[in-house]
Design goal:
Elements (H helix, E strand, L loop, with lengths): L1 H30 L5 H6 L5 H14 L30 H16 L5 E7 L4 H14 L4 E7 L4 H8 L8 E6 L8 H5 L12 H4 L5 E5 L4 E2 L3 H5 L11 E5 L9 H4 L10 E9 H6 L1 E2 L8 E2 H12 L7 H11 L4 E3 L26 E2 L1
Parallel strand pairs: 1-2, 1-4, 2-3, 6-10
Antiparallel strand pairs: 4-7, 5-11, 6-7, 8-9
Length: 360
């Protein structure tokens, strides 16, 4: 009996200490000066979800706006909880975001983020792994657009229908689709089905914005974070990609390409964020005719002119297009498309030395 009393007293003491520590952290966060407030967050599209969670906190706990702007660039997510972050990083809004996020999402449905992927051959498991990583970290609901060969459709359905993420994700399966008169030529360009991404703006006509990713990537941050780059586009930008290389001395395009390419080292299309409404409306400058051409008009002429000079298929065609229309591209840092060649010859992506957001 005496031993039981000692154990109970010890547990009670630990509980009191934990409670005191929690109150000390709460007091510290309330005493700190607000870091920019709601107005500062409104200017930063990447911080909108923290601002939204702060409003939930204000309504649910009457804490007002004192915690706004405290999370800085560190996201609070299922795998990155408030209490796992450094004490000097997050304020009250992070706590309330972690506590109320899922309830808030149920009562305040937000716009879906659209993610597209193309899977052919032996890419089923790789694609499913990528989709799981997108779901686990993300906050807003997701709409998957999966383009796959017919023999993969049933397997995708069996796996996706068993996903335990009801209400957070929907998906649509599509067949591989190319223009009838040139389907064989497009399908064999570079890798099987890879050039399907070029036709997404023409197929998904009712989708305003879209994130395309290759099957071999893993999300290490919420899709919401890269999606926020759409809010940073200026009036002329229609798409966002990362550079192909950071170091020109090991760059492929600047050393070997036999066609025009974007910037100093070209761009990599494995992660491509698109405002598809703008893409469909834009008339593109080109080196084939003085007349500007729309997206659906320029693809085949580009292929005919450069098919003997391109190595990386549709990525090369995108490089050519944005070489002639550089004002239309938003370039995001390499940590959003981190690849083995960023570290095989030393560290060639300085931003990724702090954190990698999308891994390939």
């Amino acid at each position: 009996m005496r031993r039981f009393a000692r154990v109970a007293l010890l547990c009670l003491g630990c509980g009191v200490c934990s409670l005191l520590y929690g109150f000390s952290q709460l007091a510290l966060s309330l005493e700190q000066e607000p870091g920019g407030g709601r107005e500062g967050q409104a200017r930063d599209p990447g911080a909108r979800r923290q601002a939204g969670a702060g409003r939930v906190a204000a309504g649910s706990a009457g804490r007002g706006e004192s915690g706004a702007g405290r999370c800085k660039n560190l996201s609070v997510s299922f795998w990155n909880s408030y209490w796992m972050l450094p004490s000097d990083v997050c304020g009250m809004n992070c706590f309330w975001e972690a506590a109320f996020r899922y309830d808030y999402m149920k009562t305040h449905p937000s716009e879906k983020m659209h993610l597209a992927v193309v899977a052919c051959g032996e890419r089923l498991e790789e694609t499913v792994t990528m989709l799981r990583s997108a779901i686990i970290f993300s906050i807003k609901p997701l709409q998957f657009h999966i383009f796959a060969e017919d023999q993969l459709h049933e397997s995708f359905k069996d796996i996706l229908d068993d996903f335990p993420y009801e209400g957070k994700v929907n998906y649509t399966l599509y067949p591989i689709t190319f223009p009838t008169e040139s389907a064989a030529e497009w399908k064999k360009l570079f890798k099987p089905c890879a050039s399907q991404r070029l036709f997404l703006p023409l197929i998904l006509k009712n989708v305003d914005s879209l994130l395309y990713v290759d099957t071999d990537i893993l999300f290490l941050r919420p899709v919401d974070d890269i999606w926020s780059f759409l809010g940073k586009f200026n009036s002329t930008q229609i798409a966002a990609m990362a550079p192909e290389h950071e170091e020109p001395r090991i760059g492929w395009y600047n050393r070997f390409a036999r066609h025009p390419y974007y910037g100093v080292t070209g761009i990599n299309s494995g992660v491509m964020l698109m405002n598809m409404t703008r893409i469909r409306k834009k008339y593109f400058k080109n080196d084939m005719t003085p007349v500007r051409l729309q997206w659906g008009e320029i693809l085949m002429p580009l292929l005919k002119k450069y098919k003997l000079n391109i190595t990386w298929g549709d990525q090369d065609l995108l490089n050519i297009m944005f070489f002639h229309n550089p004002e239309s591209l938003y370039v995001f840092p390499c940590q959003w498309n981190y690849r083995p060649d960023h570290c095989i010859y030393g560290s060639n992506c300085k931003e990724a030395e702090e954190e990698v957001f999308i891994w390939r």
